[in-house]
Amino acid sequence: MTGYFITFEGPEGAGKTTVLGILQEELSKKGYDVISTREPGGIDIAEQIRSVILDKNNIKMDGRTEALLYAASRRQHLVEKVIPALEEGKIVLCDRFIDSSLAYQGYARGLGIDEVFSINEFAINGLMPSLTLFFDIQPEKGLTRIGKNDEREVNRLDLENLSFHQKVYEGYLKVADRFKNRFHSIQADNSIEDVTKEALNIIEKHLNNK
Ligand code: TMP
Question: Which of helix, strand or coil describes residue 111?
Fold first, then answer.
């Protein structure tokens, strides 16, 4: 495959979705062939799975069921959207991927990072991102930011308490340490302009070194 698979990770309210949108435009203007997508979702079947996972009424959902549903939606999204784009040589910017499962389900839910990694290995069948941008923000700050954004949907995971979100953050630090080669941290409480500039530099360096 000739494209570049770049993932965006971080706790709630880190601003990664906003920055991803701006980066897609910037990279397109510079002449790169780039698409953006998100997890869970990005294509019809995966969006349907997303609505089951994130439905605020599904309070009975078991942690392993949740992890398996994320992995299932990941598989379908890869097959239908990510792999074809990479085969056409495109840059794929993806809002969340496997590291979200490792941090949220593996660490914060307590299912085990190794256990969740292994079900995801089955789902992704070797397709790891070549670069992952980690939007680093303290969970308290991130949650305050999303609290101020009236347009954002509130989902089942947003309703978890602060200690869950603190664990997600700790989980990300563990995952970042494990995958040092592809992880690049960005201080996400800087201005959107600064964060975007830094992300763009990291991406362009990556594209030029490959
Ligand atoms: P979003 O708010 O970034 O669209 O993501 C939806 C929620 O799903 C968010 O709370 C993070 C969570 N999530 C997981 O718990 N595991 C995963 O594997 C993914 C992709 C997302």
Answer: coil
Write the pLDDT tens digit of every residue in 157-189.
988 999 999 999 999 999 999 999 999 999 999
Distance (Å, whole) CA 97 – CA 127? 11
8 Å CB contact between 172 and 103: yes
Atom 9 of ligand 1: nearest residue by CA position = 157
DSSP label of 96: S
Q: What are the beta bridge partners of residue 91? A: 4, 34
What backbone phi and psi angles, to 5 degrees, belong to 88? -85, 5
* Ligand 1 site, residue 120, Cβ cutoff 6 A: no
Pocket flag, ligand 1, residue 66 (CB < 6 Å): no
Ligand 1 centroid to residue 157 C-alpha, Å: 8
Mutate to test the pocket of ligand 1, among 100, 154, 164 (most ligand atoms within 8 A of CB): 100
pTM of the full structure: 0.97
Backbone angles phi, psi at 57, to 5 degrees: -80, -15
Question: E strands, the chain, where?
Answer: 4-9, 34-38, 91-95, 131-136, 183-187
